[in-house]
Amino acid sequence: MVYVTYFRCFRCGEKYKPREIENLPIPRCRCGSALDAEYDYNSIKEIILRDDFMRDKPSHWKYWAFMPVKDLSKIITMGEGGTPLLENKRLGSSNSGSSGSGGRLLIKYEAANPTGSFKDRGSSLEVTKAKEFGKQNVALASTGNMGASVAAYSAFAGLECKVFVPDIAGKEKIKQIKAYGAKTIAVDGDYSVAIRQAEEYVVSNSDSFLTGDYPWRSEGTKTVGFEIADQLYWHVPDYVVVPIGNGTLIWSIYEAFRELTLVGITETIPKIVGVQVEKCAPVVDAWENELKEIIPVRNPDTIATAIACGDPIDGLAALKAVRDSGGEALRVSDREALDARDKLARNGIFVEPSGAVAYAGAVKKGLGGTVVVLATGHGLKDMYGIG
Predict the structure, then answer these.
(1) Rounded mean pLDDT of 202-231?
(2) What is the pTM (predicted TM-score) of this model?
(3) What is the span of the domain harbouring residue 317?
(4) Which residues contact 142 (CB under 8 A, 6 or more apart)?
């Protein structure tokens, strides 16, 4: 049973029926903006408020009713989700500048997913949809983590995979993509150029399915937010701090908490704090200058390559998540991100530089109360500056 009622554009507000979106090679609004799914929450409420749902162990597909999937017997899963929510009091002590006396700082360690990043949540749903639509191969643009994730899930499902890789992608991530048998296409340009090439390929190849930061991925990524609430025994933290690349993750987390209020499990939404690096901060720029549009950053140059998205597809969604939750957008330097990476590692939590950006922002801001910080990718993916 699919509970999606329609998809709505972030920019112009136009609504689309699910069937209209499924028939588009590029699932995006006519105005070019990203789309968000809305559901029949009354029907979902009848399912999830049963005692067995509330007691079940947190895992990605536990929250299937909030995802546009038709047949649960045919989902493509590699055991994604159920990642730990770690608390190390040294990371949240008062001298760290974050969650001082009386507060808690928790790390949602997404590196524990099968390919080492949060991307596996979206890939599970995207590859499920590719199989549902009868496609033989998938294609996407990626700076590394998403490409590795889609390549793995495609291989698991028996599909071919093509990854358009911009010149900023790290060698370790390209090797991981190739290890799964995917074909990589080197792109002379940044991530936005790679996106255009991937979309052009799918438009001209009808047996191919476009993956990446589009509605299916966003809907799959929501389970990060559901799990945070679930792991806190359905209590809502004061803040959730999230790195912003394409904006999909931060919007998905906000949307998860919003949907929990709509079905009556929780009553409030945490303040969502988005963090970008100084050399690629188009969403922060829009936040600081109270803009209604995202002004792209051309050829971003940062060590946080996983979030070096100068023209984020879900940038408006990220901005909406910050504004509607009463949160804020912050920028950190490459040096602050590396220092945060090193501090996490010296306390047993190993992430790549991009995966430490949210912690760097939480430390810089000195947030109080219960703070959940997203650690998005494993340290083995990018060991810049180590050794």
Answers:
(1) 96
(2) 0.95
(3) 85-117+217-381
(4) 148, 150, 163, 164, 165, 169, 177, 194, 212
